[in-house]
Structure formats: structure tokens, C-alpha cells
Amino acid sequence: MLVAKDELGRVVVAYNKTVQQLHSIRQMSLFCPDCKEPVILKAGSIITPHFAHLKHSHCTNYENESEAHLKGKLHLYEWFKKQNIPVTIEHYFPSIKQRADLLIKVKKKYIAIEYQCAPISINELIERTNGFLSLGIIPIWIFGSSYLSYFHNAAIKLNTVLKAAIHHYSLNKTSKLIFYEPFKRQFTIGSNFYLVKNKGYCHLVRKQIMNITWPSLFKFETINDNMLFRNWLKEKRNFRNQQRVYQAKADQRFVQQLYNNHLHPQNLPSVIHLPVQNSHMYVTPHYIWQSKIVLNVIHPLNVGESFKWGQVWSQVKDEFKQHIPVCYPTPQNHPAYQFLCHLITLGYLRQTKNLTFIKIKSFKFHKTLNKALADDEQYLRILLNKRNNSFKKTFYHIK
User: Strand locations in the chain, DSSP E?
Assistant: First the structure.
């Protein structure tokens, strides 16, 4: 911890003190601000000066903090101060028995900054988020270096905790994950995610902490169309080949069901395995439920016949039962409904009132891989052009 209290209840900090001042602090009786147990000063030529509990402490609010966590908190603390944003470090809330790594005030709103470096369970993540929300405080999670793992320059690895922490800002319709690497003094901000299992394609920005401001973290950013196009085509090719040595059980069942119907992923219409947002909230890969909608609901219909949303939902609801609990409110646009909107854009459906859809044309089942990939490319171009035209670039400020 970076803050302790003396016998009179006064706050004591050590990270910004001289050697002589640190020597004086060592002579003091110091206590944990939360549990009131005794603590000692730890300082050296390498580590950041901080306070630690004695052995066999029963305090659960302060565990052994890594040097990365201590440095990161201090960097963020100084960063807010330089922007004249009121900030308190390690503020404790007795009513919910939680502390915020940093508490800031922006206009009339309080915001808890949780800088997470150590592993955390999804249940604890949501419990802590709800604790702050119960006090009317907005929690913003910023993750440390250990959470940032790249597939390549355009995609990051999203474990369950990161998926749960994706923060959607309704004002400018953008989703964010924020990382801070203290030894590089660098923010990495991911915006607007399209997922294939645990691979998150997104707009990635890397900025040195001295070159970015608090409002800039929430700037609207959209994923580069060419990058998404190139990489999604690769995903489509991998999907059609299905030649991986290891396949998850869901994929094994999916491929077996296709075989039972004399189909292979190579033959499937190019409307299957299209990018949709909000799929991070669900465990089942999106191409599985997209296939069910196409093969079980729409394909059996004649052109001109209609179906309702309820028929779609009855086919796919089981695929959405395994969902990931999320920290923040999310867009109401369900991935399955987004997919139907894609089919409208591609000219296969027309929507009428009361969530009724009319089939406009039949799907094409491919006989060769080359033809399938050619149509995949064409459909992706249409969708990405449509998506790009619908975005309005704005800035979002927490007010």
C-alpha cells in the first residue's frame, strides 16, 4: 500500500520522501487505513517505498502488491494531478469494505480507477464493480501488462475477465479496454471489438502517458476497415478448411452436424461467419448460431415467405445460454439481430413491422473453395462499406 496512518489518524505517504524523511517514518507507529493493524515501511534503492502488513496479518483489502502495480498507481496519480483532476490515492469506502486504487472527480461525478495487475476472478471483478456502482461511483478498470497479450498487431487475446470488463459508452457507441504498462509508461487502448473466440480484432492505440489526456482515453475510434477485411478473410479461410489438429468440443459437434447433412464448412453460404459485435458476451462461437439461423430457419423457406424473430430465437436460444457476465451496461443490439441486419444489407431479407422478415433470395452453397472465398471477399466488402458509412466520429467525455 502507498498510504498508511499514524497514531493520530493522519495520512502518511512514503513514495515521494527523501532518505532522511524515510528514516523518520521508520520510527513511527503506523497502521493500515482499513483494518487498523500495524504496518511497516518497505523502501530500498530499487523498490517503490510503500507499506506492508506484518506476517500473519488478517487484512484482506491489501495483499502483496507487485512493483508494477505500485508504479502504475503512482504514474496514474501524477498523471491526473498534472491535468488538475482532483485525485486521491487508495481511498477506502467503509460501507462497502472496498478501496479504490485512485478516486477522481470529474465535474460532479466520482470515478474509481481500478488498476488491475494481479489475476482476478470474474466474480470478484463484478462484485467490486457493483460495490462502487452502489455508491453512485463509476468504476473504470485499467489493466496491467500481464493482461495484454497480442496475436498480432491487429488482435489481442481476451480472456474471460477482459471480455467481462469491456466498457461500452452509449454516447458515441464505442467499446473500450484500457491497459497501462508502467515500465514503458505506455497506454494501450482497444476500441470496438470483433471477436473470434478469444481473439479480439479492434482499433489499437499506443500512447506514452505524457502524450495523452484523460478525455482522450474515450475518444471514438473505429477499427481499420482494410485490417479487419484482411484478417477476417483469413479467419474465413481457416473456418472453411477446418484442418486444425485440436478442435474444441463445440466445433467438433458443429462439424459433425454438417457432415450428417452432407455439408462441409467449405460449402456453406458466405453469409455464415460474418463479424458481429457483442459476441464477447457469449461462449458459443458466432458461426455456429449463424449457421443455425441460415440452415434451419431461412434456407427451408421459399422466396417471398416470411418468418418472425421468435422463430429465430427458438432455434438459437440454447447457444446463448452460456453467457459471460459483464461489468457494464451493454448495447441492446443482440448479435443474432445484428446478423439478420447483415442479411438485409446483403439483399437476402427485408424487414417489415413487428420483427417480421421476408426472404428475398436464396442462399448459394459453394462447390469449390475458391468460389467460396471469392464470395466471402465480396460480402465482407459490402458489409464493411456499410458499417463505415454509418459511423459518426465524435469524442466522449465522462461528464
Answer: 3-5, 11-13, 30-31, 38-42, 50-53, 87-93, 98-106, 109-116, 138-143, 150-152, 155-157, 167-169, 174-181, 186-196, 199-208, 306-308, 349-352, 356-359
Residue type, 212: I
Alpha-carbon 355 to chain mean position:
30
Q: What is the pLDDT of residues 307-342, one digit of tens each?
A: 999 999 999 999 998 888 888 777 667 899 999 999
Closest CA to 209 of 146, 129, 137, 115: 115
> pLDDT tens, 349-374?
999 988 999 999 999 999 999 999 99
Lay out the sheet containing 349-352: strands in order across: 306-308, 356-359, 349-352
Nearest Cα to Cα of residue 159 among 128, 186, 185, 122 = 122
Calpha distance 118→145 (Å, rounded): 10
SS3 content of the chain, % helix, strand, coil (to 5): 35, 25, 40
Please tell me the distance from the alpha carbon of residue 391 to that of residue 163, in angstroms, as a whole number: 23
- The secondary structure of residue 59, as a DSSP letter, is -
Beta bridge partners of 114: 141
